[in-house]
Structure formats: structure tokens, C-alpha cells
Amino acid sequence: MTEGTKAGFVALIGEPNAGKSTLLNRMVGAKVSIVTHKVQTTRARIRGVCMEGNAQIVFVDTPGIFRPRRRLDRAMVTAAWGGAADADIVVLLIEAHRGLTEGAQAIIEALKAREGAQPVALAINKIDKVKAEKLLELSKQLNEAYPFVRTFMISAERGYGVDDLREWLASELPESPWFYPEDQIADLPMRQIAAEITREKLTLRLHEELPYQLTVETEKWEEREDGSARIDQVIYVTRDGHKGIVLGKGGETIKAISKAAREEMTEFLGRPVHLFLQVKLRPGWLDEAERYTEMGLDFRDGD
What we know:
Layout: E1 6-14, H1 20-28, E2 46-52, E3 55-61, H2 71-85, E4 89-95, H3 102-113, E5 120-125, H4 132-145, E6 151-153, H5 162-172, H6 190-206, E7 214-223, E8 229-237, H7 240-247, H8 252-269, E9 273-281, H9 289-294
Parallel strand pairs: 1-3, 1-4, 4-5, 5-6, 8-9
Antiparallel strand pairs: 2-3, 7-8
Helix pairs in contact: 6-8
Organism: Pseudothioclava arenosa
Subunit structure: Monomer.
Region (G4): 125-128
């Protein structure tokens, strides 16, 4: 279908943990982006595809923008701004209860430097956490800091205001044939989505015990005759001591992670999944170009 259709790219930007992944998943109506309470969990520019009337909105879910320290951090921040540069519309997410933080101010300053590149809308998220007067005051303060084309008050988690934002985005997109089939919700390969699911379960289970020094790769994907899939994944850690944390006493941690990831993959694929996880030590993976490629990042962006 091409006649009278619209399509375009929308970049969601903001500080880590502002709710970009939750908003993407709410818009798309399916879980396509990793969501945890730890910051910096979105590493690659995951695209979620959402249909609204005759419009196809392709969301570019960027990593949170923060002050980078390591190569991985620098590659993530470059990916975030790259995602914004490629978009037709940019949506800046600000947490209502945190307001105009130093980090948000830095993002607004960077937006000013590229003003006019494309329309930028403001979405004040987590509005259920503050009183109405504070919201109005924050909206005024932010709109004085940058000329946003529209301001939306939303709760990505509860769904408040999300329909209004989605309808507005659809109305603003250019006329264009759709980029993806109508029933496609993400353009990540299934192997990468499966790796993201396992990484989310690891992050949720391990909390503060393990920093961001682990990554998951889908090594093998075998389609079986009975319709099920066998998925073999490797969890890479940078220190020997981290292996024990991931495995847990008597292997109980890895079993719980595997069970949670397998259940979600089964639901996502709509068929049985047999998941096999291995933990391997790889001290230098943070400096290996192929690990970045696997995550959809450019190794050179970390320089």
C-alpha cells in the first residue's frame, strides 16, 4: 500500500532512565526494547515500528545521553545523536520529578546547536509522580529554554497521554510508502532481540552486583522440525569473579535467568524455545570491534 500513506523516523532522546524504552514499547504495543531500572541499558538504536491510521512511525530508540567515560559510553552517545540526526522528528523525554537537571540542560544546549534540523517535541514523562502546578511550572521553564514545537504530558508506564503523542507524530510525518511490512514491529534480527531479552533478565536479576561489563551474544539458532527453536547464547564477562556471580550458588542464578528469558522468547516468538546459556570470560570485550558490531554500534565512535 502506498497511496495516501505516510512514513517517517522519530528519535526518542533523553537522559538515561527517562523512560524512552518504556515509551517505545507502549507505542509499538509489544516489547522490542530492553527495560530495566538500571541506567544505560539501551545500547543500540533499536527501531520499533508502530502503525497509526495510514501512517507508519518508525521509532529510533537511542541510548541515554550522558557524560561518557569509557569507549562503550562514547560509542553509545555518538549512536544517540546519530539516531537524532537521521530522524524526521525528535522527541525529548524529561522526567517530571527530576525536572531540568544538569544532564537535561546539556542535551537542550546540544539541541540548540542543531536547531532547525528537524522539529523537536517535548514529552514530560512520569507525570503521575508530581502535582499539576509543578508540571505547568516545569513546562514553562523548558519551553523558555528551547522552542519546542509541541509539549506533551505523559506517563509511558501507565499509558497516559501516549495516544495523543502518537496521533500527533502520525499527522506530522511526510507522505511516503511504508518502510516495513504492516505486521513488522522491529528491524532488529531475531538473534539480537533474543540476546537483548537475556541481557535484560541478567540486569534485573543481578542489580548492582555486576556493572555493565557483560554482554550476550546469540551463537547459534536452530529451527527444529517440530516448530520449536534451539537458541545457544554466550554471556561474556570481563573478570573471572563475575562468572561466579552470573552462575550463582549451585547454578541457581543462571537457571532463573535462563527460565525467565526462555519464557519471554517463547511468548515473543509464539512457539517453544529451548535456550542454552554459557558464561565465558573475555577480559577485553569492551575493546573488541566485533562486539560493538554485534550490538549495532560503531567501534570507531568510541575514539
